[in-house]
Structure formats: C-alpha cells, structure tokens
Design brief:
Aspartate Aminotransferase, domain 2, four-stranded mixed beta sheet, 451 residues, alpha/beta, Aspartate Aminotransferase, domain 1, binds pyridoxal-5'-phosphate, seven-stranded mixed beta sheet, globular
Length: 451
C-alpha cells in the first residue's frame, strides 16, 4: 500500500469519520489499520496494537478466522444476493433464523433481519407499534428508554438512545419516546445503598407509565448491561423490578443485546445473565463477530403471531443478506463448537475479574465494574467522595484514552469512565498483557494530571 503519510492525507481530504471531530484528525494523524489477528491489530507502520474493544464491541471470536473468509467467498460465488421479500427466501437466512431461534431463550422463536443494530432497533419501534395497533390499541405508541443509553445512530434509534449530544443535533428524539434515568449507582447513587438505588431507578419506569398512561405505552427498551453508556452494571435489584413492572402494565420488554449478546456476559445473551425475559431482543455485532454487517430482531411467539396476521410494511434490501447470514452462521458454529462461552465463564472472565478488581487500588480509579468480558473503571480525583474532576467531563477520560493509544492499546472512554470489551478468546497471558498496558496508561495519566 501507499506510504502512511499519503494514506493519511487522502483520508483527511475525503473521508468523514463517524463520531469524530474530523478537523482535529489532520494534526494528530490517524492510524491506518491494515491487518488483524486474534486480539491484535497491525497498522501501516507495522505497529501491533492490543484491541481491548474488539473493534466496536463486536469481534467476539477474534480477528483473522479463515473459516469465515472461506464461507463468505463460497456464498458470494453461489448466491451473492437475493432478497427475502414477498415469496422468496434462501438457505442462509433460513438456517440462521433457525439457529437463532434455537439459541434464544424462552419462546423467542422468530427472526426479522436487518443490516446492523440501529436498523434492527428501528424495526423494533415499528414492530411494537404495529403489534398494539393490530391488537386494537393504536394509542400504545410510547417507548420508554433510558438516559445515556445508546441504541443506534439512525434518527429513530438515536431517539431511543438517550445521548443528549445526538439529540442536540435537532429533530430528536422523535415523538413518543420517553427517557428515564439509568441505574448508574457510582455516579448518581449518593448515599443510597446500591440495592435501594436499583429499585428506585427501576420504579421510575412505573412512575413514567402512570404519568403517560399505561394505555399509551408500547414497550420498554434497555441493554442488560449498558455498554456505550459506560459499561454500567446495574444493581441486582434493578432488572427483576423492571420485569415486574412491565408484566404489571402489560408493557413489551425489549432487550438490546447488540453488545451483550453472543457470549459477552458469559451466556449466549445478557438477558440470561441478568434474569430478563424479553419479548424482543435486538442483536447485531457479535452475531457475525463483525465479519459482515448484520443485525436482527428476535421476537417471541405472541408478538410474531400478531404481526404475521397482517402485512408488516417494513424491510431492508439487505434483510437476511445471504453472505452476511452465512458468515454469521459460521461464527455461531465457531462460538459453539469451540466452547468459547465455556472459556469465558471458566477461564477468561474470572481471571479478568480478579485482575480488574485490583484497579481500584490505583489513585485515579473509583469504581471497577465488570460483567463477563465487558468492564469499566470510573476515574475520579477523590474516590472516597466519588467526586468528579473539576475539568470539563470527559477531559481526563480522553487523556487516558490517548495514553492507551500511545501504548498501543485500544481502550475507550465514555466521559471520565474507561471501558473495555475485548475478544472473548483471550487467554490468561493476553489478559496479563492487556492489564499491564492499562496500568501503565493509568500511571501516565495520573502523572500528567499531577505535572
Ligand atoms: N444498540 C447497542 C446497544 C449498541 O451498542 C449499538 C452500537 O454500538 C447499536 C445498537 C447500533 O448498532 P449498529 O452500529 O450496528 O447500527
């Protein structure tokens, strides 16, 4: 390939990066990623970078699996595209829907395909509203979500999400989306015990339902463990109370499993880890380990039955794309046959949890939260008071991310929280290496702050 500087210049001239202050990139110089294997990326200068984020929380089986490339090539030769609209279907979509119905808990037996998580959540909005309309309750349109949640970047899924920076772009949230507070005890719990705080935050759902009128509320959506909101592991009391409230008012429960699904929390789905029984699950990312763009809504019998009794006027050109579906199936085969979930539960997650807990000994770290292979630390100037930094929120987090980057470690920040979501296949040596880089980056951040 061209020399790095030339690639960077072309990138700066023509490529608009998502979620990025593009003008700043020129000064900093982007890194051009050229190859990847296991948990390591290689850039155009030959530097190896430990990817503690699995790309964007998605490369669950790790990079460089030849089997997925082979399956994609074979499928492209046989049937590169056909749709599943009207009265046609194809083998990869049939097989993947069947496999997902087998893996999903309870009676989540029906699959509607999308190209990723955002458009799968758009599907969910339309699906739950259609469901209630077809049941003769067309006023049930409101979907309750949570502040600081991320459910995607289309106008509708960005509205479901509770990211104010996105809403401030204008026109969002779209009507009939309501947000309650997130169960972030460390930042917002004050003197309340975590269990009581979990209950209080869940009961905000009931308050919202009563305020809006139960006959107007269609569904509640939440991630079992909030990911892009900062890997917020809710107190144990939270989800059972949410489940109880949804059942009491006959509200559909949507679990956004885009990050939590496919082994991230040690089970196939975060709903199993958190004891949630959703009516619909959103999946994407780990479904194909990011090797091909695909998402889906996995739907329970009752909702599917009602929707299927009429025409659901919705669908994407790439709903059930044969190449993406074939790649996803192969990814699920690898997850299953190589017992990667077992590896997470028995080896990687316990080992990481033990190492992660020691981070609270660092002077910058308040809380160290973890669930399976997703984890976060809250940076603080004063852990006893769970204090915030005097600087603009996110300044210290950004600095720490930069330190990580300089140490060839991809770790993200959400405000002043640092997060990881590494490939599930890490062995204990990999975890040691990742933790060493994290500690070094934290030390350097601390030194810099005290300069
Ligand atoms: N839902 C959750 C919980 C996510 O984390 C994301 C992406 O990060 C999405 C939905 C959107 O998925 P996509 O980027 O594939 O559209």
């Amino acid at each position: 390939h061209m020399p790095t500087a030339e690639l960077q210049a072309l990138d700066a001239a023509h490529h608009m990066h998502p979620f990025t202050a593009n003008a700043e990139l020129g000064e900093k110089g982007v890194r051009v990623i050229t190859r990847a294997k296991g948990a390591y990326l290689t850039d155009s200068e030959g530097e190896e970078i430990f990817d503690a984020m699995s790309g964007l929380w998605c490369v669950n089986i790790g990079y460089g699996r030849q089997e997925l490339a082979d399956v994609a090539a074979r499928q492209m030769r046989e049937l590169p595209f056909y749709n599943t609209f009207f009265q046609t279907t194809h083998v990869p979509a049939i097989a993947l829907a069947d496999k997902l119905a087998e893996l999903a808990p309870g009676d989540l037996n029906h699959v509607f395909f999308a190209s990723g998580g955002s458009d799968a959540n758009d599907t969910n909005i339309r699906m739950v509203r259609t469901y209630w309309a077809m049941k003769g309750q067309p006023d049930r349109k409101v979907i309750i979500s949570r502040k600081n949640a991320y459910h995607g970047s289309t106008v509708a899924s960005g509205s479901l999400g509770g990211m104010t920076a996105m809403h401030e772009q204008g026109g969002m949230p779209i009507p009939d989306i309501h947000h309650i507070n997130q169960p972030n005890w460390w930042a917002e719990g004050g003197d309340t015990a975590p269990e009581d705080f979990g209950l209080a935050r869940a009961r905000e759902l009931e308050e919202a339902i009563l305020e809006l009128g139960a006959d107007r509320v269609a569904a509640f959506i939440g991630e079992p463990v909030q990911g892009a909101g900062g890997v917020i592991v809710p107190p144990e009391t939270y989800w059972p109370e949410i489940q109880r409230i949804c059942a009491k008012y006959d509200i559909l429960l949507i679990a956004d499993e885009v990050i939590c699904g496919f082994g991230r929390t040690g089970n196939w789905f975060g709903s199993e880890t958190m004891g949630i029984r959703p009516h619909i699950m959103t999946v994407a990312k780990g479904l194909s380990s990011g090797y091909a763009p695909i998402g889906a809504s996995i739907v329970c019998d009752e909702v599917a039955e009602v929707i299927s009794s009429g025409e659901f006027n919705h669908g994407y050109t790439y709903s059930g794309h044969p190449v993406a579906a074939a790649v996803a199936l192969e990814n699920l085969r690898i997850l299953q046959e190589e017992n990667i979930l077992g590896h997470v539960r028995d080896v990687a997650a316990p080992y990481l949890a033990e190492a992660w807990a020691t981070l609270v000994d660092h002077p910058l770290v308040g809380e160290a939260a973890i669930c399976g292979m997703m984890a976060s630390i809250a940076l603080t100037p004063d852990k006893a008071r769970r204090a915030k930094f005097a600087s603009e929120p996110g300044t210290v987090g950004y600095l720490c991310r930069e330190m990580c980057f300089a140490n060839n470690l991809i770790m993200r920040h959400v405000g002043d929280r640092m997060i990881i979501s590494p490939p599930l296949i890490l062995d204990t040596g990999d975890i040691d290496e990742m933790m060493a880089r994290i500690r070094k980056s934290l030390d350097e951040t601390y030194e810099k702050l005290n300069e």
